């Protein structure tokens, strides 16, 4: 707990940084005078309606937190916890690295209610031909190319109409999942939707295709970021704004086409003068007097409300869309299927400064200290979704028993906020875009969908210490998923003594598909196992598919119990000597 309390010492530093950023971002605008009160941790309930009861009041605590970390006292430890719970990178101030060593859960969350992990339903028996026909059926677009879910939401049934007004007031899907050569999504008539596909290195563990699913990810910035100062659509300016966001989220320089900085009035390449820029420079902390801001219509937005280019933060109004899909097998190759299991949506509704985020995180630590058994209160509704407490709304759609997409229940969506609402590994409550493939090396600058080009040939991401990220994760966990149930990865990558196969690790460094993609046989078994969850419609009991050895998972946790892990594993971004700077002085 002492590590978390250290953050208080940096509040004044963070607030001072906010003041410095005020001079940098515009010169004419004054910086915020003080941090505003922390935002509420969730949405208010619909007027006149009580929040829906949850069968699992700790639904935000993911099933992976119940994975066994030590088979026998004094035996080898299996640390999958570090992937999420780690020393954060400001402006994420949730330092939860201690969770790797101590099971810091509320007493009422000790019981593992993810019973689909403990006792999964029997896989659906279905002939291969029928199964392939099922996963190849598009449940997002119909035969005429129209968006099925958007049409269904025009007149929502009573179960979807949370406030009973006859209208759907949440996100209505408007992405066609038809990206062009640059990743820009286009409607059948060629119109741009604003969404842009990006490829990224999947987060370690259960999110790999070998553990069940693939999916495309899309990002969209608000309309002003896609327009010139006269309000006309301008894809060139949108590319630059996206490059600025990428530079400040990934904390790297991002190449762009040669751009006249004079015309935009902005020093994109950070050389201190206006000329021709061929990259957006990541310069942080901000340089006083540097002319730097978003371009086009976005340059006219109020930075105190909508945000400005800041390390680790997206502007207000940023949206993410992520499809989660079945696996298809064609000519002996596994690829992403047309059928969606889920459609996940996030929208940033509020701009919060470093100081505000710091105070909110420290307030949560104090509340945890005062009331260690108090659970988070989830107030939300089926239409608008659930708030993360960090300025974002999350909403999701999932298959019904017949395979059509429907809005998730509040409890089904609450399962998402445990990771997106407060762990050390996130960047502004998100995972994927900070892991986008490098713009200077990847195909199409990393702006493409997995459906257009698979994982084959993508090199393994590296940690700051030079280790391969995935190999390092495998070594720490001792298996191919958090529960060590993936027999296929176990056979491919581990020797009898539990050490890694050197040849497999070498191949992985050059091609992540050697680890992440399952065999055709496993892919179809995963599909059958997940389809059983769909037929049961008991997603509140868990939606992870475990296939292979019996999962090593606790039916119950010991509150404040030791995991057997003696010291926390450092995050991949951190190198020796940088810990204080990244989390304090910046």
Give an account of the 3D structure.
By secondary structure, the protein is α+β, with helices and mostly antiparallel strands. The chain has a domain at 63-221 and 317-562. The chain contains 16 helices and 12 strands. The strands form 3 sheets. Strands 2, 3, 4, 7, 8, 9, 10 and 11 form an 8-stranded antiparallel β-sheet that branches. The chain has a two-stranded antiparallel ribbon with strand order 1-12. The two termini are 22 Å apart.
Summary?
With 586 residues, this protein is α+β, with helices and mostly antiparallel strands.
**Gap from first CA to last CA:** 22 Å
Structure summary, number of beta strands: 12
Low-pLDDT sequence parts: 1-49, 579-586
Mean pLDDT: 89
Helix/strand/pairing class, anyone? alpha+beta
Oligomer: single chain
What's the gyration radius in Å?
23 Å
Largest sheet: 8 strands, antiparallel
* Helical residue percent band: 10-25%
Overall morphology: globular
Report the sheet-strand fraction.
5-15%
Compressed to H and E, one letter per element, the order equals: HHEHHHEEEHEHEHEEHEEEHHHHHHEH
- Total helices: the number is 16
Protein name: Conserved uncharacterized protein
Organism: Stigmatella aurantiaca (strain DW4/3-1)
